[in-house]
Amino acid sequence: MTAPPALNETHDPRLLSWVDSANDPSTDFPVQNLPFGVFRRRGHGEPYRGGVAIGEQIVDLGAVAEAGLFADLAGQGATACAAEKLNGFMALGESAWSALRLSLSRALRQESDSAPRLRPCLVPMAEAEHAVPARIGDYTDFYTSIHHASNAGRLFRPDNPLMPNYRWVPIAYHGRGSSVGVSGQDFHRPLGQTRAADAAEPIVEPCRRLDYELEVGAFIGPGNPIGEPISVDKAERHLFGLCLLNDWSARDIQAWEYQPLGPFLSKSFATTVSPWLVTLEALAPYRVPWTRAANDPQPLPYLESSANRAAGGFDLRLEVLIETARMREAGEAPSRVSASNYGDAYWSVAQMVAHHTINGCNLQPGDLLGSGTQSGPEPGQGGALIELTEGGKQPLSLDNGESRTFLEDGDTVIMRGWCEKPGASRLGLGEVVGTVLPART
Length: 441
Fold this sequence. Notes:
With 441 residues, this protein is of the alpha+beta class. The protein folds into two domains: 9-131, Fumarylacetoacetase, N-terminal domain (SH3 type barrels); 139-437, Fumarylacetoacetate hydrolase, domain 2 (Alpha-Beta Complex), CATH 3.90.850.
């Protein structure tokens, strides 16, 4: 991959904003972040349009474009963001993304004289609703955590948990883009075909082993012509930004259907993404080396890069919380059930793109890549209940005394992701939330 975005004036941890809520040390959206999404004011029936998160406010990029506040590449970017989806902006490439982000950064800084012109373009987050940020043409879900692959594999193949191709190939399957929803998505427990171990025939019934999967999503920017692979050295030029992703999974349906071609109905009923896309430029202070154990097979040449080795990973902290219906009724806080870090991924985002296109597959602006469940090497770092409960054999205790093997109706799953370290501004991806409703029978 080409060198990751260098640190520049937008990353200066001393920067403050005239939007006071952006200066809260605990905010996910300081002036150093400026993630993109689409929104509209709740209850107004107006079109969705692009926006940028700053503290507890949203910069309405449709209003910015209409007012002509920015010129040149930044102005072109704002105009593209006035659309209902960000695909056109994603297609413009990193020069336009960076130009608009820089103009916004300068206009939102505490010392800026742009406040009188930009303040009318702010919409409080509390008054907004969101949609999926892009029109997703295709969704591909990878399997990049060796810890998750080992934990899950051990449940079915104790003596040989990893398949022989895992350390060589960034494994993935083609998901369903039409059922991807934005944070706040509620969905009915899926029905499907299952077969008990002692049964002669399968039955159709509501899923009994409903699970979540903690993932990082990556949205594609400029695509590639069919037949022309993207090299690992150029992959990040095609990556717009990262979000959180919950790949809901029906484990009992999955167990019956997945051989020989992999997941189908067990995954296609719902996938939820967070509303804000954090650009790779904003994440530059939190790049970390991508590593591979010396005794593991090293990547084949098309997946190898010295730049990827130096800074192909992200020090992105992740956590999962569960809020049960009883907690909600009692006004109790959700229970934190796991924590992990995207820096532990076995394959990097650049390698995902390079492998996806090595056969000539053409990616398009707005395509979504999922990282696969992100789990850590230690107990309590599993990114799914199937790991934390050892396949449902060991119930997970929640803070209020309830327990779970898999999700129950009324459960809300909350996933969060953020970066922080000394010498850099804390920034976050926000959160992705979804709730399980009873099955339609």
